[in-house]
Write a structure and sequence with these properties.
The protein is an alpha/beta fold. The chain has 9 helices and 10 strands. It has a single domain, classed as Rossmann fold, CATH 3.40.50.300. The strands form 2 sheets. It has a 6-stranded mixed beta sheet, with helices on both faces. Helix 6 links the parallel strand 7 and strand 8. The chain binds adenosine-5'-diphosphate (ADP). InterPro entries: ABC_AA/LPS_Transport, ABC_transporter-like_ATP-bd, ABC_transptr_urea_ATP-bd_UrtD, BCA_ABC_TP_C, P-loop_NTPase.
Amino acid sequence: MSGEALLELRGVSVSFDGFRAINDLSLSLRQGEMRAIVGPNGAGKTTMMDIITGKTRPDTGVVRFAGHDLTKRDEAAIARLGIGRKFQKPTVFEALSVRDNLLLSLKGLRSPFALLFARETAEEAGRIDALLETTRLAPHARVQAGGLSHGQKQWLEIGMLLGQEPQLLLVDEPVAGMTDAETMATADLLRDINRTRSIVVVEHDMEFVRALGVGVTVLHEGSVLAEGALEAVSADPRVIDVYLGR
Ligand code: ADP
């Protein structure tokens, strides 16, 4: 893919009651890139995601995505531009099968009851089969989502987001609470998805970040403290200071 910026934040700041949660933050993501965002609690990671998705409006600065100024759009409009966000806690419909959860998402429906009046088209069936393969859930297609493991629920929700064909996927701490095997499978899954989509992933688990093998941005006090390969960033004395609290 080309090297042009898909997402760009420039000089972004936001304060809550006089406290600067994001402070002159600049960050750029290339088309096709996957980036890990790390940083101690309170560094501003969640607020940054909130700004990108339009949940929080910055006080100053520029946020651009695929040539659009995001600061002038609301959350729904930003989602329609092709930004999908996966929150930490999975929100699948537990009483529905894995397959029906994916169907609901493809149809853009919000209520399981709406499925009573909806038919799966051949085109949707094909797309669901592909999503089941991508998310490693094909053997569980007919299982109720409530019966999946925690990790599998997270993969299902990622599949539901992919059904909306986002260009950019924002993923918040996807491996929190996962087993080691699920964590490594999630790294594989995100690498697969990254073949066709850009990804920003906020994560504390450094083994997972290592397994992703992507560039890392360290946030601290609402700005970028360091950026680069994990090895270089984790050897940076400023990063060590922040993490060890010296
Ligand atoms: P992280 O996700 O890196 O842990 P956050 O983005 O959640 O950090 O928070 C950054 C800082 O902004 C924290 O000090 C937090 O208390 C503060 N903050 C975040 N959202 C709000 C809010 N809505 N009102 C007041 N303070 C907030």
